[in-house]
Amino acid sequence: AQSVAQPEDQVNVAEGNPLTVKCTYSVSGNPYLFWYVQYPNRGLQFLLKYITGDNLVKGSYGFEAEFNKSQTSFHLKKPSALVSDSALYFCAVRDMNYGGATNKLIFGTGTLLAVQP
Amino acid sequence: GAVVSQHPSWVICKSGTSVKIECRSLDFQATTMFWYRQFPKQSLMLMATSNEGSKATYEQGVEKDKFLINHASLTLSTLTVTSAHPEDSSFYICSARTPTGTSREQFFGPGTRLTVL
Fold first, then answer.
1. B37-93: per-residue pLDDT in tens?
2. Which residues contact B63 (CB under 8 A, 6 or more apart)?
3. Are B46 and A104 a contacting pair at CB < 8 A?
4. CB contact under 8 A, A110 and B42
């Protein structure tokens, strides 16, 4: 079965320190991977995606993610955290049943990032 | 990037009434839109896939007659919660998929908070 796992419910980091939000996936074939951020009472905002190409993907607001096929991971990273980065982060993978034709996304359970000043 | 709006942003209604939520793609045509619901501190649960000009495809366990979806144009999909009850209170989020030929990523609306008294 296809799935996405975010093993940490919450990540705490001090402002200025590097941050990592973990994501692992299980999907048939080549994965299409996404990271979204959600601020309180708001919809999801797209951060970045991996479709093919370089394993290191750069996205919005200074975030980047590294695709690791052997570890089936797509961890989100940022070199220096800001207090304003505090939000809920979701990893998602495209449902590859029917060759991905349904365009459905399978979401992880989310990780709350708390950046302390 | 592509912009998706939802209206209303929040609604309070009495038990037994029906509520309509609109999802619009503002600067692109979306042949496919998705409706999700999100409970507090939980991930997004896909309810249905809305295709312009055809019937929606509902996920297993989602009542078709309870959650009516209409995708009448390439920029508008509506979700009507019929005979709403307190257990229908949730955060409803729509997304719209960019047209075929691009990366086909989903862009999310800001969400609608439904409270049923």
1. 988 777 889 999 998 888 899 999 999 999 999 988 889 999 999 999 999 999 999
2. none
3. yes
4. yes
